[in-house]
UniProtKB/TrEMBL annotation, chain A:
The chain crosses the membrane at residues 12-34, 64-88, 109-137, 157-177, 184-202, 299-318. It comes from the Bacteria. This is Transporter. Keywords: Membrane, Transmembrane, Transmembrane helix.
Automatic annotation (TrEMBL), chain B:
Residues 10-232 form the ABC transporter domain. InterPro entries: AAA+_ATPase (IPR003593), ABC_transporter-like_ATP-bd (IPR003439), P-loop_NTPase (IPR027417). Keywords: ATP-binding, Nucleotide-binding, Transport. PROSITE patterns: ABC_TRANSPORTER_2. Pfam families: ABC_tran. This is ABC transporter ATP-binding protein. CDD domains: ABC_DR_subfamily_A (cd03230). It comes from Dactylosporangium siamense.
Length: 323, 272
């Protein structure tokens, strides 16, 4: 049975394998360039490394964001193109009536095919993630943002777990819908929804956040991404930590800043405004996960997705018996 | 003793299958003895495919019972061979790949038999199955199903899509294979002419019901064609075809299989 599973995967594996090989070469080249760029930036800057490192970051940011995005959609793509047709294609072409009448039970057939396809998909994703993590590591060390919602899913272990879950989800969708194209669509929609929902709804609760307060100095205000009319702020960050949530701008006694005084600052040049707001002596309460939790979160989320993959496999095995 | 000669190859009891509201097979009770070549005949939509898919476990019954070689369908995978309608094969796999598939997936695979059949058919082992003609594809599907050495070989409309020459070739190889395997074979067709040359047992199905079932010779013995209008009290199937002996003195001759089946299809006589 393993032979048949490999034989049926061969063509897809060849095509995807070539694509991943090209990508791997690109990542090795990029990783070397990033290392070179980092070395140059640090070697020449002496005491004032800030601007040199910012230049280094902006030089590679675009390429790395594209690669992050590609790695984030890889589990969905594999779920669509490897998972969804796994059963649906057989049902569409009628070959299930050939293969399910050999001396191998349907369940064993499904288990072996799922195992082979998932293992191959996980290996390819793992290689991609490994190379991207390696290539981006000097950049990540400078940016110190690998724990943030977007990047967390594009480094180290979790992409492999996503892929396992995506492939099994695709196969189950194909088994239930019995048609390849609708199964691909449903897989894409469901898995995209899962990838959006998990960082927002599930991941923050994989540990209890730490609470602290952050003084809003002019420097801190300049680094924000958003400063709202109702004293709400966004874009608080700190090296290596993951900020889960934060309060509005608060005064020393813990109440929201007086909006009239606050609005008085919101005009003119940004630097002037930042100093004006800073003079109000404000702070925000912040809930965050410290950087030391990064690997615990990687393992927990991987475990979560692998458990989901096993549960979906169970559903598929139950379902194929009554199909 | 599931292998004993008395266990029916296929037995059903009140077997019913619905698709939503449509009844595809209604209260079908049947007993097919082993060692026969069985023709399952009926018009399109009569429930033939449904019955055969129930027998190999691809469908589950709505109600009633079905047993294959004395066991639940789908539990004796190694002992039942199935050639599905339109004889599906993997278009991307070669003829040799299909034989390897059979070898890897069936413990009792007879590689010599399969190789002999492929050679006799003149199939190129490197040819992709998607490039085969309809007749060659059907032959390949039959080879895969037969080389696992089943005790029961089920074929669902295997020749429907074939031209007359390919039909003849397929049926001849089928008979040879069944004889070599010592197996029971059940093949369905909407045309009696496809099966009458090869089968020695007949089941006629219309509207989801069994109209007629039995060994061909026994069926021919049990029916007559009245040469004069049949007398009152005669058990008329349809037209001149009469069930049972006629009263002495009334004219009667032997019946042909084709007119007998037609009489049951037209008369929709009492289920037997």
């Amino acid at each position: 049975m393993t032979w048949l599973a490999w034989r049926q995967l061969r063509a897809q594996l060849l095509v995807t394998g070539v694509a991943v090989a090209v990508l791997a070469v690109y990542l090795v080249v990029l990783g070397t360039q990033i290392r070179g760029g980092h070395h140059d930036a640090v070697a020449s800057c002496g005491d004032a490394c800030g601007s040199a490192l910012r230049e280094f970051q902006s030089r590679f940011q675009g390429q790395l964001y594209l690669l992050d995005a590609l790695l984030l959609v890889t589990p969905t793509l594999l779920g669509m193109f490897w998972g969804a047709p796994l059963v649906a294609r057989e049902l569409e072409t009628g070959t299930h009536r050939l293969v399910w009448n050999q001396s191998v039970s349907r369940r064993r057939w499904l288990v072996v095919r799922l195992a082979v396809v998932t293992a191959a998909a996980a290996a390819l994703t793992g290689l991609f993630s490994l190379l991207l993590t390696w290539a981006a590591s000097p950049y990540d060390a400078v940016a110190a943002d690998r724990f943030t919602a977007l990047l967390f899913g594009a480094r180290n272990l979790v992409p492999v777990a996503y892929t396992c879950c995506g492939v099994v989800l695709g196969a189950l969708a194909g088994l239930v819908l019995r048609r390849t194209v609708p199964a691909m669509a449903v897989t894409a929609l469901l898995f995209a929804a899962i990838q959006v929902a998990v960082p927002i709804v599930v991941r923050p609760h994989l540990g209890t956040p730490v609470h602290s307060s952050r003084a809003m100095s002019a420097e801190a205000i300049r680094n924000l991404s958003f400063l709202g009319a109702k004293a709400d702020v966004e874009g608080l960050s700190a090296p290596n930590v993951w900020v889960v949530s934060n309060s509005k701008l608060l005064t020393a006694d813990g109440r929201t800043v007086d909006l009239d005084r606050y609005h008085g600052c919101l005009s003119g040049q940004f630097d002037v405004m930042a100093q004006c707001v800073a003079a109000l002596d404000l702070h925000v309460d912040v809930a965050y996960h410290p950087g030391g939790r990064y690997w615990r979160f990687q393992w927990l989320e991987s475990l979560l997705f692998l458990t989901a993959a096993l549960a979906l496999t169970g559903v598929a095995l139950w379902r194929i018996r009554v199909a | 003793m599931v292998t004993s000669g008395t266990t029916p190859a296929l037995a059903t009891e009140g077997l019913t299958r619905r698709y939503g509201r449509r009844v595809a097979l209604a209260d079908c009770t049947l007993r097919i003895p082993p060692g026969r070549v069985v023709g399952l005949v009926g018009p399109n939509g009569a429930g033939k495919s449904t019955l055969l898919q129930l027998a190999c476990g691809l469908l589950a019954p709505t109600s009633g019972k079905v047993s294959v070689l004395g066991a639940r369908p789908g539990t004796r995978l190694a002992r039942v061979g199935f050639v599905a309608q339109d004889t599906p094969v993997y278009a991307a796999l070669s003829v040799a790949d299909h034989l390897r598939l059979g070898a890897r997936l069936n413990p009792a695979w007879d590689a010599a038999f399969a190789a002999r059949r492929v050679a006799a058919l003149g199939l190129d082992p490197r040819q992709r199955a998607g490039r085969l003609s309809g007749g060659q594809r059907a032959q390949l599907a039959l080879t895969v199903a037969a080389a696992k050495r089943p005790e029961l070989l089920i074929l669902d409309e295997p020749v429907a899509a074939l031209d007359p020459l390919a039909r003849e070739g397929f049926l001849r190889t089928l008979v040879e294979s069944v004889a070599e395997l010592g197996a029971t074979a059940v093949l369905s067709s909407h045309l009696l002419s496809d099966v009458e040359r090869v089968c020695d047992h007949l089941v006629v199905l219309t509207g989801g019901r069994v109209r007629l079932a039995g060994d061909v010779t026994a069926l021919l013995d049990a029916h007559h064609r009245a040469t004069a209008p049949p007398p009152p009290g005669a058990d008329v199937v349809h037209g001149a075809i009469v069930r049972g002996p006629l009263p002495a003195g009334t004219g009667a001759g032997p019946v042909q299989l084709e007119e007998l089946v037609l009489a049951y299809l037209r008369g929709e006589g009492d289920p037997r």
